[in-house]
Write a structure and sequence with these properties.
Layout lengths: L1 H10 L3 H14 L4 H13 L3 H14 L4 H13 L3 H18 L2 H21 L3 H22 L5 H17 L4
Helix pairs in contact: 1-2, 2-3, 3-4, 4-5, 5-6, 6-7, 7-8, 7-9, 8-9
Length: 174
């Protein structure tokens, strides 16, 4: 079983073996997007971002309606410091999740988008842009919080409240 072999070699830090098995899985089942996505997640974990990016884009060519792939592309862009590109990918993922009606994933993506706006507010050159970005962050945090209200994920709800507090702190509005 290839999945067991991947886990076996991951546990032993044998990156070349893991990569070879993922490539074999894709070769033998090129139509199964989860193989590409799992491989890309592994590449991201070992900080091979450009390779992970290419694999994810191949997965999107097979099925362009994978919000998790857009989210992973956003995560990679964020890790590479391109927060504008990350925002674009998160927004694409959000549209798909909203169409699917997955409220929890929608809320998580709204939180990711808010974090990007918060970061943009922190690095904005002029005060008007800074305030605008922080207000966009607050708007998205509030939407996420509205979805999580009454949900059992208290940890994520607390995190969003913390992020809202940090944003108001940045605005000196306390």
């Amino acid at each position: 079983d290839m999945d067991n072999a991947i886990e076996y070699y991951k546990d032993r830090k044998k990156k070349d073996k893991v990569i070879a098995i993922y490539k074999d899985k894709i070769y033998f089942t090129p139509h199964i997007t989860s193989n590409y996505n799992d491989y890309a997640a592994y590449l991201k974990d070992i900080e091979k971002y450009s390779e992970a990016n290419e694999i994810l884009k191949t997965s999107l060519q097979i099925n362009p309606y994978q919000s998790n792939v857009y989210e992973q592309l956003g995560d990679i862009a964020k890790l590479e410091g391109d927060i504008s590109k990350a925002l674009d990918y998160y927004q694409k993922a959000l549209l798909i999740q909203q169409e699917l009606g997955d409220r929890i994933e929608t809320a998580k993506l709204l939180d990711n988008i808010a974090i990007i706006y918060h970061q943009q507010g922190q690095t904005a050159n002029d005060n008007a842009m800074r305030i605008s970005k922080f207000h966009s962050a607050l708007e998205n945090y509030s939407k996420a919080l509205g979805i999580f209200s009454g949900n059992e994920d208290n940890e994520l709800t607390a995190l969003i409240y913390n992020n809202i507090g940090n944003t108001y702190w940045e605005l000196n509005d306390f």
